[in-house]
Amino acid sequence: MNNEEKILHLLENMQSDIKDLKAGQERLEARQERLETRQERLETRQESLENRQKGLENEIKENRKAIVSMETTLVDKIRGLYDNREVVNDKLDSLNEKVDKLQIDVNTLIIKTAYNDSRIIRLYANNKDENISNE
């Protein structure tokens, strides 16, 4: 093998190596493009997630406001019910006192009526006895 053949052989090897390098580089570029595409999709998804998260945060804020409003309304209504219960209890206490007084008055009238009835019976009996003795 002479020098020219050696050089030719080396050039052929180099050309083959260059083709292999080009093919490897093309594969790397293709992979790079797929990675970039995937990265773009990931970024898009991340933006979508961030938008959803912002929406959820806004919804949470609105829910908190609604809860605070409901709590305030509920507290006011409970306070009103408590106040009304106190008024009703005061009226019931007053009515109970009046009923107790009326019961005492009724008992007194019953006693007086019974006393008067017994007096009337005695007077009637005495009057009858007098009429019999006068005859």
How much strand?
under 5%
Order of helices and strands: H
- Please, what is the average pLDDT? 92
Largest sheet: none
Q: State the total count of DSSP E strands.
A: 0
What structural category arises from helix and sheet content?
mainly alpha
Based on CA inertia axes, which overall geometry fits?
rod-shaped
Could you give a quick summary of the protein structure above?
This protein is mainly alpha-helical and about 140 residues long. It has one helix and no strands.
Notes on the protein architecture:
- The structure is a single chain.
- By secondary structure, the protein is an all-alpha fold.
- It has one helix at residues 3-134.
- The chain starts with a helix and ends with a helix.
- The chain contains one helix and no strands.
- Helices cover 98% and strands 0% of the residues.
Key structural traits:
single chain; rod-shaped
Question: Could you outline the blueprint of secondary structure elements for this entry?
Answer:
Blueprint: H1 3-134
